[in-house]
Every structure is written in C-alpha cells, then in structure tokens.
Amino acid sequence: MQLLQAMNERRSIRGFKPDPIAKETLADILQTAGRSPSYTNTQPWEVTVVTGERRQALSEVLYKLAQAGEPGKADVPVPKVWSEATALRSKTHNINRFAALGVAREDTAQRNHLRLENFRFFGAPCVMFVWMDEALGPWSNMDVGGFLHGLSLTAMGHGLGTCLQASLANYPDAIRECLELPASKKLLVGLSMGVPDLEAPLNAYRSARMPIEEFVTWYE
Predict the structure, then answer these.
(1) Does any domain span residue 151?
(2) In sequence order, what are the residues at sequence separation of 6 or more whose Cβ sits closer than 8 angstroms to the Cβ of residue 50?
(3) With 90 as the cut, is the pLDDT of residue 205 above it?
(4) For the chain, how are helix, strand and coil distributed in percent, rounded to 5?
(5) pLDDT by residue (tens digit) across 105-123?
C-alpha cells in the first residue's frame, strides 16, 4: 500500500477477524514505526504487546471493571473542558456513529454493549499498550503521538487495522499489575490490532474530517 493511499484510507477498526498475527510481523511493524521522529532523538515510547492467553486474561480483568462501572483513573485524564468547536465535532461524531449503526439515543443497553466491546478489543488477537516514563513531559507526549500514527500506517502496509482506545487507558493500575510493570510507567493509550472484519457493522462507519479551510491560515 502506498503512503498517500494509507493516509487517506486509515480509519479506526472496531471489528477484527481472529486470525493471529505472526510475531515477526509485529516486530517488523514496531521496528518501522520506531523510525518516527522525536525531540533530539529521545524516542520516549515504550510498548507492551499482549497476545494469546495473556490477552484473554487481561481482557477479562478489564471487562469486569468496566461492566461493574469502576471509575476510570487514567494516568492522562481527558480534558474537563473542550473548546466549542472541538466539543461540537466530538458530539457530531458520536451522533453519526450511533445513527449509522441504527442505535437510538435512548437505547442505553445497546450503547453500553458497544462500550464494553472496547474491553474485548473488538475481537482483535493483539492489543498493545503504549507507555512513557512518568518523568517525561509534553514534548514526549507529542513524540508518542507521531509514533502512534506511524504504527497505524505501518500496520496498514501489512494488511492490518488498528483502533486507538483511550478507554483501555482508564485502568492503568490493573494493566500494570497484570503485566507486572512498575508504577513509574505512565499509560498513554491502548491499541487493538488485527485483520479487519469488513463485514462487522462497527466498520461501516467512517468519521468525517474538517476541510483545510477550518484549520489552516495562509500568510503570503
């Protein structure tokens, strides 16, 4: 797949086939994504790759926490206030996504079911967690964002899809305990990866993007 094609076609996949991914393929994806730029070449990202029985055990832990309504305690909390424009884009996205699935606003049971599918990793055979040392700051956060985009595009080059999931970062303590990681590792996001199931209803929706007139100012 060509780079420009991948840039235009990338989307969040929320339905995967169970086909396992070879460890060599995952290693190649991560090695390529590791070429992402970073401030003074600090390369602050750290990744844990979870597959097989450990993936299933972790899914069960996270699913039970989410199903029980355990409050999230993310290492990187969601902003409490969004600007008017960003809040509108988020609201419109959620409305359109549920409408595409035929899920009514008042259908709380189905909405909750879809929420909980995050913790089954949408059926993906592989889930990655991206970490950063707690001593690092905003520049490193920006670098990790670039790494994540590179990771998603590289996965597409191998015929795989990804979904970045902030919801998976709601329970960092449970994940650290399951993966035996120290408290000094700050969880930024989770990412499900696998072969896209293009028949899955959740994959029928594609989010809109702003025209450049809304985010670009030209000076000549």
Answers:
(1) yes
(2) 58, 126, 127, 128, 129, 179
(3) no
(4) 50, 15, 35
(5) 888 888 888 899 999 999 9
The pTM of this model reads 0.93
Q: Is 68 a member of any domain?
A: yes
β-pairing, 126-133 vs 185-194, is antiparallel
First to last CA, the chain: 35
Q: How many CB atoms lie within 10 A of CB 102?
A: 9
Q: Is 49 helix (H, G, I), strand (E, B) or coil?
A: strand
Query: CATH number, domain at 199?
Result: 3.40.109.10
Quick: pLDDT tens for 127-171: 999 999 999 999 999 999 999 999 999 999 999 999 999 999 999
Instruction: Write out the residue range of the structural domain in which residue 162 sits.
Output: 3-76+118-206
